[in-house]
Amino acid sequence: MAVEYKCCEADFFIHILIIVLLVVFAGMMSGLTLGLMSMSLVDLEVLAKSGTPKDRKHAAKILPVVKKQHLLLCTLLICNAAAMEALPIFLDSLVTAWGAILISVTLILLFGEIIPQSVCSRHGLAIGATVAPIVQVLVWICFPVAYPISKLLDFLLGHGHVALFRRAELKTLVNLHGNEAGKGGELTHDETTIIAGALELTEKTAKDAMTPISETFTIDIHAKLDRELMGLILENGHSRMPVYYEHPTNIIGLILVKNLLTIHPEDEVPVKSVTIRRIPRSLAGSES
């Protein structure tokens, strides 16, 4: 009787241990399904090349596993389903059928779905890098079943595509990373303006970049650089000032404001005595 009692007790603890392992395994597969499959190849390649030293190390471990996305997805789902299906079998030997169903649903929902996915959604990179060797072993174990299904998915849905940003999406992404967006970005206003301007460059024409002549501040070539005019030039804030002859639309050149530093307003030097540079011109409709 004592031997039989010890055997029953040993079987009880073995079943409890198996149940705990199945719940942990199912939770790990569920969390990895969310954590690994939510990372695009572009994100991982960016982290592998320009992330922090720790992120580079983690991304380098995950990339070989994630490259075949459908094979990885099938492997994780097969392992998760196998663990969840096996759990009621071991519970049924300890409690009644209704108890087994209730306990298995509770354990799977709480410890196999909610908690693992919450953790992996926040720390998926680190966790994925840690268990990457285990996942590779599971891929080989499930390969006979997972590979045909993954090839079918490749045929029906196409291979895992690289999700590159379009020009407008990239511009919005840059704006969100600006420190003015209030989302913790490190880019300054000037940096976001320069990057956004470079992205828009191919869509802009010379006309879009020009300022209407009616809104420009121009200087008459016959004017004198007295205190009033010098004050207007400084107030305008530009590094170059267009110079016109007779009427404002007849622009003949420009002067560099830095060349006026040696001129005293009291001398009232004529504008025509200052070096006037040729202004770049764009001739619309001209033929080469």
From TrEMBL:
Pfam families, A to Z: CNNM
* One GO term of the biological process aspect: magnesium ion homeostasis
Would you name any one GO CC term? cytoplasm
Keywords from the named record: Membrane, Transmembrane, Transmembrane helix
Q: Membrane-crossing residues?
A: 12-34, 97-115, 127-147
Residue ranges occupied by any CNNM transmembrane domain in the UniProt entry: 8-191
Q: What is this protein called?
A: DUF21 domain-containing protein At2g14520-like isoform X3
The protein's organism comes out as Durio zibethinus
Q: What is the lineage of its organism?
A: Eukaryota, Viridiplantae, Streptophyta, Embryophyta, Tracheophyta
